[in-house]
Amino acid sequence: QVQFVESGGGLVQPGESLRLSCAASGRITGTYSVRWYRQAPGKERDVVAVISWIGGTTNYASPVKGRFTISRDSAKNTVYLQMNSLKPEDTALYYCNAGPPTRPPLYAWGQGTRVTVSS
Question: Within its chain, how far is the Cα of 40 from the centroid?
Fold first, then answer.
């Protein structure tokens, strides 16, 4: 069983940057992808970025493409989300999880890390 601990959120102004971290407690299966999700108040949880654990192939949701970058450090069992040019609509609780590509996430959700973008 893998557990995820998200960190790095905070309150920033529009246009600023944040780097989120997702530390995994167990071994992530090589064929899995790790995803960053976000859930804004009153909305569903959506995927914003995906990275394959082996190979490092990335994909992004349209609203964040060109502004967010997902990366991983396999040695540290950690995935990052660099968020630049933040907008108020990026305000949400951010989570990470993993699973087989194109399949739902397999593991229990962590507590997430809150990102608030406001002037």
Answer: 14
Cβ–Cβ < 8 Å for 29, 5: no
Sheet harboring 68-73: ordered strands across?
Answer: 4-7, 18-24, 78-83, 68-73
CA angle in degrees (0–180, nearest 5) for 104-56-27: 60
Alpha-carbon torsion 114, 38, 118, 22, what sign?
A: positive
Cα 52 to Cα 65: distance, rounded to the nearest angstrom: 17
Query: Taking 90 as the threshold, does the pLDDT of residue 90 lie above it?
Result: yes
Q: Tens digit of pLDDT for each residue in 10-22?
A: 999 999 999 999 9
CA-wise closest residue to 64 among 77, 78, 50, 75: 50
CA distance 113 to 36: 11
Nearest to 21 by CA among 117, 119, 115: 115
